[in-house]
Q: What sequence folds into this?
């Protein structure tokens, strides 16, 4: 353990299962877009909530959204559907974590379950002053968890390379 300003911070590795979150919510009229389906923004907010809870569980405290790396809308969600979000940490870095979220909708009349969306978000653990703080390493225990961990590292590398390329391009523009 290291001593944080709010007390000790436990940096013992945590299994993926310790961060798992499942949220469910029925979609109502207030969730509709002008096409009469559930608004993508409604789904995005639910994804952010589920991912934030998974990140906070892993970090053992507050974690804030840093990046929504990817959000895929695969199928529409309809009014009256039960939306279930499944989130867990894919990888933990020094102060940040990638969280994966799977969104499914279930028609309560037919029982049909559809994978409607997937998302990857990055959260940063923060202390009571809003400053980044270290997070425990992630312990991947299954082949699927290890695969998700490897893929998270690839997405992180791509984010860092993209950021560096943009900074180089901006620097060249300023100097010309």
A:
């Amino acid at each position: 353990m290291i001593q944080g300003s709010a007390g000790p911070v436990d940096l013992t590795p945590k299994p993926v299962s310790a961060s798992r979150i499942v949220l469910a919510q029925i979609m109502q009229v207030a969730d509709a877009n002008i096409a009469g389906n559930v608004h993508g923004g409604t789904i995005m907010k639910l994804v952010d909530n589920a991912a934030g809870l998974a990140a906070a569980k892993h970090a053992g405290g507050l974690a804030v959204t840093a990046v929504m790396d990817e959000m895929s809308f695969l199928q529409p969600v309809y009014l009256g559907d039960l939306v279930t979000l499944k989130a867990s940490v894919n990888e933990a870095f020094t102060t940040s974590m990638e969280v994966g979220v799977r969104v499914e909708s279930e028609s309560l009349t037919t029982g049909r379950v559809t994978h409607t969306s997937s998302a990857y978000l990055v959260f940063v653990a923060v202390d009571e002053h809003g400053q980044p703080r270290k997070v425990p390493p992630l312990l991947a225990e299954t082949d699927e968890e290890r695969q998700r961990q490897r893929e998270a590292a690839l997405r992180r590398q791509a984010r860092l390379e993209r950021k560096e390329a943009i900074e180089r391009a901006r620097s060249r523009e300023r100097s010309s």
Remarks:
- The CA atoms of residues 119 and 151 lie 13 Å apart.
- The chain has one domain: 2-175.
